[in-house]
Amino acid sequence: MTIAERHKYILDELDRAGFISVSELAKNIEVTMVTIRKDLKILEDKGLLYRSHGSATPVSPYVSDRSVQLKKLEQVAEKTRIAQKALAYLEENEAILIGSGTTVVAFAQAIPKNFKLTVLTAAMNVTLALIDSIEVELVQLGGVVRKSSSSAVGHYAEEMLKNFACSKLFLSVDGISLEHGLTTSNMMEAHLNSQMIRSVQKTIVLADSRKFGRKGFGKICELEDIDMIITDAGIPEIYREKLEEKGIEVVVV
What we know:
Blueprint: H1 3-17, E1 20-21, H2 22-29, H3 33-45, E2 50-52, E3 55-57, H4 68-71, H5 76-86, E4 95-98, H6 102-110, E5 117-121, H7 124-130, E6 136-140, E7 144-146, E8 151-153, H8 155-161, E9 166-171, E10 175-177, E11 181-184, H9 187-198, E12 200-206, E13 218-221, E14 228-231, H10 237-245, E15 249-252
Parallel strand pairs: 4-5, 4-9, 5-6, 9-12, 12-14, 14-15
Antiparallel strand pairs: 1-3, 2-3, 7-8, 10-11, 11-13
Helix pairs in contact: 2-3, 5-6, 6-7
């Protein structure tokens, strides 16, 4: 296979899967990993992909902190389908945690107003989405308010969290990476989310497919720490395979 043929194969695989590893490319093309790394560098220099440790993605894997007002305008149809599907995993009279993010806000908005629940959340926009639901008992975590996410974070929220036990956590994230696990753009929010995961029996991640292969500044947890991901049909197949190999249930809507 010539250099041009290798480069075409790499880009075609990247377009198909949304993620490629150096080791798998070397095996499939039958060249050394050193050769593949050189190929990836050439393609990155041309702006055709982004390299990370042992892999490559079609877009930059790094995410920055952005306003929730901007995020809520993106992937609206996908987030709505994900939110609707998440309702199937609710049971009446249970106590749940809801994290912050536009997808979990869509989930909160979709909860029927006559559904009996206790909801613990640090996100003020989640609270507002449920404020008129007369059968929902709301517990608002307090702390330092992050205006970009409309959520409370910090020591007070974490200490308050220790006083409650919930069955499930419905969580949104900024990035899902095979190497780095679940991340978000703010380290304080990441730490609170990790505490939430430790306090529940089951963690259900609600994330649109653009979150795969991305990573934020603050690490929340390893992939093995979650139980389920609900996402849309744009999820790269390699992510679905690898997640299911780790015992994570992947629900595609």
